[in-house]
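ligand=flavin-adenine dinucleotide
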Amino acid sequence: MTSRIPPTESADAEVDIDVVIVGAGLAGLSCARYLAAGGLAVRVFEAEAEVGGRVRTDEVDGFRLDRGFQVLLTAYDEVWRLVDRDRLALGRFEPGSRIWQGGAFHDLPDAFREPGRIGAALRSPVAPLADKLRVARMRSTALMGADLGEPSDDGRRSTLDELRARGFSERFIDGFFRPFLGGVFLDRALSAPASLFQYLFRCFASGDATIPAGGMGRLPEAIAEPLGDAVTTGIRVRAVGPDSVELENGSRVRARRVVIATEAAAAAALTGEASPSSTRAVTAWFAARTAPIERPVLLLDGAGEGPVNHLAVVTEVAEGLAPEGWSLVAASGSEPFTGPVETFVPRALEQMNRWFGADVERWGHLKTHEIPHALPSVDRSSAPTPGFRVGSDGIVRVGDHEAFAAIQGALRSGRRAAEWILAEESD
Ligand SMILES: Cc1cc2nc3c(=O)[nH]c(=O)nc-3n(C[C@H](O)[C@H](O)[C@H](O)COP(=O)(O)OP(=O)(O)OC[C@H]3O[C@@H](n4cnc5c(N)ncnc54)[C@H](O)[C@@H]3O)c2cc1C
């Protein structure tokens, strides 16, 4: 069902808002910040009680649980244009990962970022030496680029095709790339575009994976803060038009321009356009008296046993996530975990029992987040957009689905749209 409002007929009806933005996820907030900095009067309406969209943190019994495990890469320059890095008090993951394979865990250190661990990296049984050399080559090529730019349109091939073309062994693809990129793209099939893989590989290679103290939700809070009363939460927009939106309480808000900054499915419901398919994510959160591993490292299921694809003891990474004396464990499944969400926790605990032993039986299950539309699937056949789109109705569309599926993509989409609007306004 579409929810369209025709343009306002009386041209001289009073309008004191320049731009109204639907949705206070990262894209909407970023757009609002740049528009406000450019001197425009902005209002943002958010359906949920808090800002952040897919980047939010719930408080449960004193634990801070991100809505689906995710990480902030320090290479995301869009973040630092808007937020003071010190304010987030980032906790960083160890470079590299620890991989479950053949009934045991094996470290796969990133010797480029931790040269002291080169011996361990070379000895790691996870990858044949030839694959380690391929990673080294790919890394130096990736870092040779002048800046991180953005995913380009080269090739339109899948990540899996790209890895095979680079000569990686199936053993290393299955044992490392599937669980690692399964955590990044939420898709172990590696069907995401190769250009997105190359871009994110460069981001991982050139910075840290981190979590802010208090959880990922601190990021949108920090971005929203300077906007003050311009953001209204807890009110859904039920219809949009080229110069107004209608709120769920029936009131109409007029503006000279309207920006839709919702997730793809909600944007489709408002505009009547088709929605891209999306990937589901599941994260189960557990409280443990003893951390199953006392390191800030990402654990990966390199055996393809499932349902947990990746796991982290997030209290080893960042401050302010659990009450004193407790550890917080995030166990995440990604495609192909397609079963009912109720089956995830018992199956995950069986798997964790194999990974960490009987101590797992003392873990307390805090909550399971199931995010049905976690990431928009990328259509590799479509032409890239500048990161936002202006429909024939004049309404601007922003969001990760218009750019690329990541924090950086959402923020960039909002910024690019704001720059376009500011340029239009100054003409
Ligand atoms: C489980 C998971 C793991 C992820 N991992 C990572 C990661 O590690 N690194 C990374 O970079 N990215 C990751 N991402 C992706 C990243 O979180 C998203 O790309 C980004 O947050 C999308 O922001 P957005 O503003 O485009 O959309 P959203 O965050 O979806 O914001 C849209 C907003 O619009 C609001 N809205 C919808 N309809 C209406 C309406 N009618 N009226 C008013 N408001 C409305 C929604 O409530 C929401 O707040 C992950 C995502 C998930 C879910």
